[in-house]
Amino acid sequence: MVRQKATAGFWVTPSPQSTLDDKCRSRRSNRLRAARTKHQIPTNRQLKCPLFGIPAELRNMIFNLALTFYEDPARPRDQSDNYHEYRPGHFHYLRADTALIRTCQLIHAETHLSVAATNLHTLFYNYRRAASSPIGTIGRKYFSRLTAAQLVAVQSVHIFAHRDQLRARDPGTYFSNTAFADYGCLRHTKGAITQRGVHRGSVAAGIDGPYPKALTITIRHVDWFTGPYQVWDSLGLEHMLANKHWENIFGGLECLSMELEVEEKKRERLEPLLLRLKNFVFDIGHDQGLVAEHAVKERQWRGRIRRMPQVPGDDHIWEETVFNIVTITWRSRSLAE
């Protein structure tokens, strides 16, 4: 079996089946489950295994480390083909070794939710020019492969998105080609509204999750530009901040982080936007809001940037440069305080 990258929900069966096949498989699964229940083999308590002689907290730490995503050195990303995704933490495709879960019934009982619970689930929403394109299915394809228990266990999600895909408008309806539309529909929120105002009920059917405690949104250096001429534009975030109610998307969050990445020489362009973001409070319902911390964190990394050719038709020009990543963090607080 060929391993898929971790951003493809690799630990469950990836290929969708027809409705008829689903029904047949469901009936077959019920029969197998009933047969196993009738002739269930008692779980071996593994009394002689040293691993089960240590405290459960320490054993869980070992299991979590063994099931953590890591960059697979055998599967490097090609920067030319994966320019938007080639960055720190993603220079190689991610993988997790899940053979541990199949070791025995006792280990399976303690670890079958660990991959979903302990790892950061990453979604890449790259730039698409067609404003009328259907609702993104990146999040749907990823999270629909998780079982209901795994979906509940998800604690952290990381979204990489073009600033155009962060547009939102009141009252909880989202443009059809945004990351928020995809994410909101998954959570069974107020459905999907296309830019023409047409409700897409069949597409809007959610899977009731995920509801993570922590969400990170990263706008990469290429995500600020619009069109082939790479014109700087932060208007997408202005549309995002025009929304006043965020319970449909951010409800249940304890921590929201937004990473803004630019070239070091363009760092000053972020200042007006940073001031606006630090003073912005996300209303997530039930008298709760996400309030920005005063401190802003910054870090740098060195990589290549693809610039437009001087002569139309020529190949892109690659240059070494330094990127700044500015991070603002919001924490959940009572708005009544």
Salient structural properties:
single chain, 337 residues, alpha/beta, eight-stranded mixed beta sheet, two-stranded antiparallel sheet, 26% helix, disordered N terminus
Question: Which range best describes the helical content: under 10%, 10-25%, 25-40%, 40-55%, 55-70% or over 70%?
Answer: 25-40%
Q: Give the radius of gyration.
A: 22 Å
Query: Averaged pLDDT, please?
Result: 77
Question: Element order, helices and strands?
Answer: HHEEHHEHHEHHEEEHHEHEEEE
Give an overview of the whole structure:
It is a single chain. The longest helix is centred in the first third of the chain and has 20 residues. The chain contains eleven helices and twelve strands. The protein has 337 residues and is of the alpha/beta class. 26% of the residues lie in helices and 24% in strands. The chain is globular and about 70 Å long.
Ordered list of secondary-structure elements with their pairings:
Blueprint lengths: L18 H20 L17 H11 L3 E7 L15 E4 L9 H7 L2 H5 L1 E6 L12 H6 L4 H6 L2 E6 L17 H8 L14 H4 L9 E6 L5 E2 L4 E2 L2 H7 L5 H4 L4 E9 L7 H8 L3 E4 L2 E5 L4 E11 L9 E18 L3
Parallel strand pairs: 3-4, 4-5, 5-8
Antiparallel strand pairs: 1-2, 6-7, 8-12, 9-10, 10-12, 11-12
The gist of it:
The protein is an alpha/beta fold and 337 residues long. The chain is 26% helix and 24% strand.
